[in-house]
Amino acid sequence: MSNTRVAVLVVLALVVAAAVWTKMPIGAAPPTSPTTATAPPATPPAPPSTPLASADATPATPPPPASTATPAPPPATATPAAPSAPTAETPAPPAAAQTPAPATPATPPAAEAPAAAPAAPNVQTADPFGQEQTLTAKKVVILKGSATWDNAFETLVASLKTLSEFVAKQGIKPAGPSLIVYTSTDDAGFTYQAEIPVDQDPKNLGKGMSIGNSPEGATLKFIHRGSYDNMDNTYEAITNHLDEKKLEAKDTFIEEYVTDPLTTTEDKLVINVFVPLK
């Protein structure tokens, strides 16, 4: 038992004894033990300054007990000293890891441009049919001939070849596409003039050759594409067009070979047909 608790109990005992003492009648001897008298308390309380008027009087308030020693507070628990910093030099905190800048995503390769669309097929739009056109006369080298319808194309090509070779030997370049001028026709065949435009007069003309001028004047222009064998269809369409328009044509027809018949396959021919009008 701690000293503090013993002191508190002693004080309480003294207070109880004082209270008992004050309630005893005046002159009454304190009770004694039959054997041994109880030793008076070490410090008897002082008698009341005023005698009690009667036994029923309210007992005087006992003097306050001796100052009760305030129990000493329990020893404060020693706060453990903070651990001293280690003598070793505190290593500097690691440098904050530099946050790498977000890598710029590589620009995706540009979408490969789609392959160029294949060239559109050479779709032939409808050619003008029966377009009015006025021809201007040109100087030409002429080779006259005749042919049957059965060998018409071969005969015409042979005449144009003769003229081309002659002009080439003269060192003269053609001044325009080759021409075939039909001068007369019948059921068996036709007569014609093969013509090549030139800018100068050639010398030493060959057999059946001459220098002259190409046809001129108002015409209607039609276009034929394909082989010479299909020319019959083109001429039939021309005849129908003239009848529909009530136009009267001369007996002459002019074919201008836009493609060279000497080097172009027959099914790739392009021929302008001019029909002089009366």
Architecture blueprint of SSEs:
Layout: H1 3-22, E1 131-135, E2 139-148, H2 152-169, E3 178-185, E4 189-197, E5 209-213, E6 217-225, H3 231-245, E7 253-257, E8 270-276
Gyration radius, in Å: 74 Å
Helix content range of the residues, please? 10-25%
SSE order, as H and E?
HEEHEEEEHEE
Tell me the distance between the termini. Answer: 158 Å
- Per CATH, what is the topology of the domain at 131-276? Multidrug-efflux Transporter 1 Regulator Bmrr, Chain A
Structural class comes to alpha+beta
Largest sheet, order of strands side by side? 1-6-8-7-3-4-2-5
Count of alpha and pi helical runs: 3
| Mean residue pLDDT | 74
* Overall body shape: rod-shaped
Structure report:
This protein has a domain at 131-276: Multidrug-efflux Transporter 1 Regulator Bmrr, Chain A. It is rod-shaped and about 180 Å long. Mean pLDDT is 74; it is low at 26-97. The longest helix has 20 residues, at 3-22. It has an eight-stranded antiparallel β-sheet with strand order 1-6-8-7-3-4-2-5, with helices on one face. 19% of the residues lie in helices and 21% in strands. It starts with a helix and ends with a strand. With 278 residues, it is α+β, with helices and mostly antiparallel strands. Strand 3 and strand 4 form a beta hairpin. The chain has three helices and eight strands.
